[in-house]
Automatic annotation (TrEMBL):
It comes from Lithospermum erythrorhizon. This is DUF218 domain-containing protein. InterPro entries: C57A10.07/YOR238W. One of its GO terms (cellular component) is cytoplasm. The chain crosses the membrane at residues 48-72. It comes from the Eukaryota. PANTHER family: TRANSMEMBRANE PROTEIN. Keywords: Membrane, Transmembrane, Transmembrane helix.
Length: 337
């Protein structure tokens, strides 16, 4: 006597009651496994579309590939930037200052041209533009340098950067940043040589105030392996609004971690300085990244020796910010946002 025997949903053999064995009606094939049947079906569909609509099939596959690559890279970049504070190894031997986390930046205003260090307070020791030629102007530069050293002295986790490029052709290939460092050295770091000198370096490519800030942030990343947790800018007090409201907003740095330490300009130059500041602020309001119009032309004029700017090689996480040029705030994510 025989009974029909089923494997799954299909009849595969007969059960013999006398012998107690199963006699298969046909041999089971691995291709009967459901996933394999689905793959075979998918393959036949692909072959069909390839034969009937080859161009359309190719376009669909190409589009799917592009979407996969785009989504993957987008998540990877976001992970890199948003996790930058935690992922950078402060103890790494790759960076000379892995334990420093705050930035003190002194924005340069002129180039020191004298070969005699004792003349740092004299106007004829500096290369001054016509609008800068006022009694007491050189002393304000020295005051900025001293203020930066003082702030770094009061913060053991601060890196002091003097920022400014080779902006004056007649001054020769000397940078504003190196000028300020040289003056600090001549002044014996105002009594803080042992504690500040080893944490004081230069950023020697900035051509305007926005680049003073942006380039110094990148330079900080090059030296420490991470981005600054706090930023303090040293400059003239009448430039505070420009840095705090315009430049800080342009790089989207948190206001609660951004500070400005201002010093007064010379009494004889205050009126001309305020007039010039009003104009420059209006220009940055219309062109926050200084990449179009008058600000761009001014920047090019402050690069007489055509120095190649190395950034953002040392800060790849903010490469998009360096490339951005627009009248609205940079839309991308940044490590500190």
């Amino acid at each position: 006597m025989k009974l029909n025997y089923y494997f799954g949903s299909s009849r595969r053999g007969d059960f013999d009651l006398e012998s107690g064995t199963i006699k298969r009606s046909r041999k089971s094939k691995s291709s009967d496994f459901y996933p394999i049947r689905m793959l075979k079906s998918l393959g036949s569909r692909v072959r069909y579309y390839y034969n009937v609509y080859p161009v359309r099939l190719f376009s669909i596959l190409l589009l799917v590939g592009i979407i996969i690559i785009f989504v993957g890279s987008s998540y990877e970049n976001r992970y890199r930037m948003m996790g930058s504070f935690k992922r950078f190894d402060r103890s790494s031997d790759e960076y000379p200052f892995p334990k420093l986390k705050n930035l003190v930046m002194v924005a340069g205003h002129s180039v020191y041209t004298s070969s005699r260090c004792e003349k740092v307070d004299k106007e004829d020791a500096w290369y001054l533009e016509p609008y800068q030629k006022h009694p007491g102007q050189a002393a304000t530069f020295v005051e900025h340098i001293e203020k930066g050293v003082e702030l770094a002295e009061n913060d053991d986790e601060a890196l002091l950067l003097f920022s400014g490029g080779e902006t004056r052709k007649n001054a020769g290939p000397r940078s504003e940043a190196q000028s300020y460092w040289t003056v600090a050295e001549a002044k014996g770091w105002f009594g803080n040589q042992e504690t500040v000198r080893q944490r004081a370096l230069t950023e020697e490519h900035a051509r305007d105030s926005f680049e003073n800030l942006l380039f110094s942030v990148c330079r900080f990343r090059e030296l420490t392996g991470l981005y600054p947790e706090n930023i303090t800018v040293v400059g003239y007090d009448f430039k505070e609004d420009r840095f705090v409201r315009l430049h800080r907003s342009a790089i989207k740095f948190p206001a609660t971690r951004f500070f400005y330490s201002g010093t007064p300009s010379s009494q004889t130059s205050i009126e001309a300085a305020m007039t010039g500041e009003t104009l420059v602020k209006a220009q940055f309001q219309e062109d926050p990244y200084g990449c179009i119009g008058a600000l761009r032309r001014k920047k090019l004029g402050r690069d007489p020796f055509h120095r190649s700017i190395p950034y953002p090689n040392g800060c790849p996480e903010i490469r998009g910010l360096f490339k951005y040029c627009g009248v609205t705030t940079y839309p991308g994510a940044l490590p500190w946002t």
